[in-house]
Amino acid sequence: MKHTHHRPTTRALTLSGLAVAALALGACGSADHGSDHGSLPGMGAAPSASATAGTQAGTQTGTDATSAHNDADATFASMMIPHHEQAVTMSEMAAKSASSADVTQLASQIGAAQGPEIETMRGWLTAWDVLPTDDSEMNGMTNSDGSTATGHEGHDMGSDGSMGDMPGMMSADEMTALGRAAGTDFDRMWLEMMVKHHEGAVEMARTETTDGQNADATALAQQIITSQTAEITRMKALLTRVG
């Protein structure tokens, strides 16, 4: 009986030992497995952080690329804004005084195109932290910190920097004369003045495509060259039909 009692005890102890060993091995396996899972987030986090940094760098680079500009870009935008504004004013005058439907239609087309371009260029100057100067200082721009951004010499500004010396810009006297004209006289005068005005814009735009750095500014300059050259051709054809 004693021997029979001893045998089950030994077997139970053996089984208990095996169970303990199995539990120990399972614990080690769980620890190792947990360690593996613990390392995965760390490994995954590093690339994620790098990707985030790369994205931020890419965003910053894109911002820098958009904002990158030189003096030629600033001069182009600063001078083309008042140049466009005068064209819009002339277009509004044609809407009231032109006798030719063709002139009225063309004037409307010019105003519709150049109005949004003015806003676009104003946005650039704001982004570039460049403020256009007043009429008496059109030979350069003033930055918001008070320093001067030198204008491009290729625009042939007068010694007094007046806008009347800007390529294609009408003088105050010419605008007054246009305002007093009527009928076919207005049509002829408007077409002649707008041809000159467009030719000046094309000249300024060509300077920008050569000397500018900002991709958006040079693209607009090329667009101005293309569209206004076509309009010059159209206006010269209209001049041959004006009585």
Automatic annotation (TrEMBL):
Signal peptide location: 1-21
Domain DUF305 span(s) in chain numbering: 73-239
Record has Ribonucleoprotein as a keyword: no
InterPro entries: DUF305_CopM-like, Ferritin-like
Compositional bias segments (type: Polar residues): 139-150
Ranges for region Disordered: 33-68, 133-170
Keyword Signal applies: yes
Gene3D superfamilies xref list: 1.20.1260.10
Keywords associated with the record: Signal
Listed Low complexity bias regions: 38-68, 159-170
Domain of life the protein comes from: Bacteria
PANTHER family referenced in this protein's UniProt entry, alphabetically: SLL0788 PROTEIN
Protein name, per record: Uncharacterized protein (DUF305 family)
Native organism: Terracoccus luteus
Lineage of the organism: Bacteria, Bacillati, Actinomycetota, Actinomycetes, Micrococcales
